[in-house]
Every structure is written in C-alpha cells, then in structure tokens.
Amino acid sequence: PKYYHDVLSTINFVQRIVPKMLRYPKEYYQEKLSKVDVLSGCFFLSRLKDFKKIKHFDPHTFLYYEENIIGKKAKEKQLITMVDTSVSVNHNCSVSVNKSLNKIKKYKLLKESMFYYEENYNHIGSIRKYFLKLIYYCSLAISYLTYWI
Fold first, then answer.
1. What is the pLDDT of residues 78-92, one digit of tens each?
2. Of 25, 47, 132, 145, which has the fewest beta carbons less than 10 angstroms from its beta carbon?
3. How far apart, in whole angstroms, are the C-alpha atoms of residue 60 and residue 81?
C-alpha cells in the first residue's frame, strides 16, 4: 500500500473499505498467471535464490505487513510476483489469532507493523509519521470506547 492507503485504513470504519480499494478487479485474473504487487502470505512459493535476494522475511514484523514488505523488496530487486489462478486454497483467516488476541490487541499489532513498513519501506518523513500516529491514537481511542460499550 501507499501512504494514503495506510492513512485511510487507520480511520475507524473506513478501514473496511480500503482492502477493497487495494484489490485487483476479478477481470484482472483472466490468464492462468497474473502479475501482482503483493501475494497473500497464507500460501505462496518462491525460489530460494529469489528469497535470499530479498533477504528473507523482515524480522521486525509479526503477523501483519510481511506480504507488503516481501512485495516491495521483490519489486526493488526487479523480481516478478504472480498469482496462479488455477490454484485454489482455503484459508481460515485469523482463526488461531482470534483465539489468543482480542480485536484491540490485533489492531495494535497491525498498526505497529504498518508504522514499521511506512518508515522503513515507504520512507515517510516526520510530518507524515506524526499525522499517521495522530489518526492511529484517535482511532484507538474510538476502538476502546466502542469495544467496552
């Protein structure tokens, strides 16, 4: 995602719309192989030499934003990421995570990874970082209020 996608995804209630903005339309996947910027982390394959080229997973994120970081690093190394539309995978999203983390803890973990991504991969400046943090704290306060009410 770009900076403005992360800003929008941090605002309560707008965050449900942003993932739809980032998806390719269904018509995009007409070929057996479709080029994409980011792959889903639930199931992907890579050649070891390419994964070594991007220096594997970034150890500073956990659960969230790994895919975006891999996609960004692959693009910088001029590697191509593709979806094989003939493969189907059923993934039970967040089943394990939901058992151990409540919504607010998941949200905090997601945003920690987002801040790391924005600083280290999108290289945002201090004003943008401050603005993003301001929105985050406002949204977090709203989340606490709606979670406990």
1. 999 998 988 888 877
2. 25
3. 22
